[in-house]
Amino acid sequence: MTKAAAGRVTIRDVAAAAGVSVTTVSDALNGKGKLRQETRERIRQTADSLGYRPSRVAQAFRHGRTGTIALVLPHRDVSGNEYDMIGLDYYMTIASGSARAAFSEGYALMLTPRITTEDEWRLIGPDGVVLCDPAASDPRIDMLEGMGIPVVSIERDPDRPDRPFYVSGDNEQNMRDLLDHLHQGGARRIALLSARSSWAWTLEGEHAYQSWCAERGVRPFVAHVSVDRLEADSYRAACALLDADEPPDALIASAEQYSEGATRACRERGVRIPEDLMLAIGIDNRFAQQSDPAITAIDLRPSDQAGAAVDMLLKRLNGTPVDKPSVVPSQLRVRASTSRS
Predict the structure, then answer these.
(1) Residue ranges, the chain, pLDDT below 50
(2) What is the distance of C-alpha 131 from the center of its chain?
(3) Is residue 273 within 8 Å of 337, Cβ to Cβ?
(4) For burial by CB atoms within 10 Å, which of 33, 191, 219, 243 has the most?
(5) pTM score, two decimals?
């Protein structure tokens, strides 16, 4: 049985097969040393025939890198305790998609705790960072870039309009597509549960909603909801809307767990979905897919967003110019919660 058949081929296997030293193989494969061209070619052909692939970890150390990418998710404060949002479907898919994309390029992905100081970042020592949902003027971007650690964000920093290093969905168009769909289905009083945050997707979605209402001369109904107690606060906000003198006939729950609170409020009041209220959500998840009725949602394609973010970060690490953001197309998933026919 050959080494290639038995397991991973090493540089020592290539050296033995080519009849040269390990140093000579390293010089040949890395374009170093004073070797004859035919010797380089013979060693490269030997490496190819054995299926040798260089260790990205070893390459990283040679270039002063660690071979790791850090993924930073948002945190929320629930009853005085901090939790990251890995439990939400969107961020779980971001994490798994980032890990696959990093691994395919020979990098390890590290999911970090909440880090606030340069010393903590030096302890971890990532080559680069994928940052989800930066806040306006997010200080972490300045800190990391100042340390020489490049950052690519999923969604943009709202206060850095000229910074191209981000991946996002077309948030304004997504909201308009959802509003048009509800309006075409007969909705005339469309309310919005909007996250109380400075995240770009929140600001852009609410701006699109306000603009859409102004263009049609209809009254906007916006309830701002915490991002800390997602289901409980969205339930209370939905109750207030449904108990108003003129309740909405359609409701957009912008964040992932807002639809759970809204659904509970409707169920307790005997409000039928979609007959009395059409319900849609801005971020698709398993609850929306498995609910009865299933809930219309925007599929942001988080796995594709994660892959695009890792790809952009690796370009920055490799010195490839990045002069514009990457916009990942989303898809409106129309389901029973907005279908009255």
Answers:
(1) 1-5, 80-82
(2) 8
(3) yes
(4) 191
(5) 0.81
